[in-house]
Amino acid sequence: MSDKFTRLDPELYAYVVAHRSEQDPILADLAAETAGLGAIGHMQIAPEQGALMTLLVRAVGARNAVEIGTFTGYSALCVARGLPEDGRLLCCDLSEEWTAIGRHYWERAGVGRKIELRIGPALDTLRALPRGEQFDFAFIDADKTGYRDYYEELVPRLRPNGLVLFDNVLWSGSVLHADTADESTRALRALNDALLGDRRVESVMLPISDGLTIVRKRTPSEA
To answer: What is the pLDDT of residues 122-151, one digit of tens each?
Structure first.
């Protein structure tokens, strides 16, 4: 298979980021504050990924969304921006400290009323929810070893044609190393392979930021 991609250098990447319609000064301020935290700031999603998530939320007409791993709230703001006025986003995270940063920007952006933040183990939060279909969109960006468990709890709660997005599925390229002892890498490799054989869904992996997989739940007629 011939190479059918364009390699990005910093200048070309800046061009890509600049050519997105979702250019929000509030998001820019949040990104700047997060970057000021130091190395941990790299946990924040990339701006073009955030713009894509907003677009997807709008495109599928999502009204109810869930996020596993909120950090300082950038991705939550992107999702909430795409929801209608009566839309709801459930955010699951362990840190009061990091999410407190996000709360300020959610309110400033006028979407705070759409967001419910639950502090505690996300798996406990998900398992406490009814198993009926209730979500249109889900974003998973937390501990990589927990990705599969989060996914299995979300699929029964996702409506047909709903989307699940997984962040960091390339893990800086380490997913190529089958002999790795790193638990996060092994978990991501297992998830990436499992999605290919999951007949409940269809999926595509995209080289956005550190790798983004988009999963669509099939309709009953497709299953």
So the answer is: 999 999 999 999 999 999 999 999 999 999
CA–CA separation, 17 and 40 (whole Å): 21
Contact at 8 Å (CB) between 30 and 77?
Answer: yes
Does pTM top 0.85 for this prediction? yes
Domains of the chain, first to last:
10-217 (3.40.50.150)
- In the block, tokens 């990447």 appear at 13
Q: Which amino acid is at 133?
A: E
Determine the angle formed by the axes of helices 96-108 and 25-35, rounding to 10 degrees: 160
64-97 core/surface letters (b: 16 or more CB in 10 A; e: else): bbbbbbbbbbbbbbbbbbbbeeebbbbbbbeeee
Residues 48, 20: contact at Cβ < 8 Å? yes
Q: Which two tokens stand for residue 218?
A: 């099939």
Question: What is d(CA 81, CA 58) in angstroms, rounded to the nearest whole number?
Answer: 9
